[in-house]
What does this fold into?
Amino acid sequence: MNPTIYLEVVVQGVLTGLVYGLMALGLSVIFGVVRVVNFAHGEFTVAAMYAAFLLFTLFGVDPLIATVPIAIVFFGVGYGLQLALVNRFVGRAEHEQFILLVGLAIIIVNGTLLIFGADARPVRLSYGFDSFLVGPVIVDKVRLYAAAAALTVAAALFLFFRFKPTGTAIRACADNLVGAAVVGLNVRKLYALTFGLGLACVGAAGALMETIADAKPELGPVYTLIAFIIVIVGGLGSMTGALVGGVLIGISEALAGFVLAPSMKSMLSFALLILVLVLRPQGIMGRRT
It folds into this structure.
């Protein structure tokens, strides 16, 4: 077999993994600051996929362009959800947070199933089967565009946290909640901003994911599990780790699906997860506490 094929599979895995990484980045940001694990993460991703499908079907908006309005809407949803509901559970027992967000996930799954049915909802792009030839390697155009958009959103988030005063304040809340409250920071508002930013990443990732996979209600728990694997592999609370973990999981799924069988894609991902937990429990980019 031509070894170039394996290189193409790896490139495809990297590009898909960057979109995975953006999805997991939202989970990592929320946990790193609010200390709440969003068990409805994958379900929100699927909701964003359906939003991209609707914008394309009704108005002909390319999902790559729809990334911006969907991210803005999801930011508002996350902001309001944190203020109205999630904030009441911050600091409460983990099992109560689990029940709240799993209940929300069930509502989203059944809502999408009720509205759209169980059939897959694809987006037929005019360039859906186009590709670029980079040397001997064929690069899928859709995945390349989606990966570039994911990197752009991730870079914007990194710059926000690094250079904007509000981003610095959010990082202060993550590092020392009591100290942030003592110096007068509005922790409740900053938590809402963080949850909104986390869901904005999810909304953008879901819109980009619709170009790669068809929207289906049952994908929600699958994406939630993938996001958890990514943040654990990369390091809980690490933004860079989310992207690194996403790329690793994307490559492992692509190689397993090509070398073994498509039904065994998750096997290599879980093997990587176990290996990281054994050798570096805090994750590749995580810090020991």
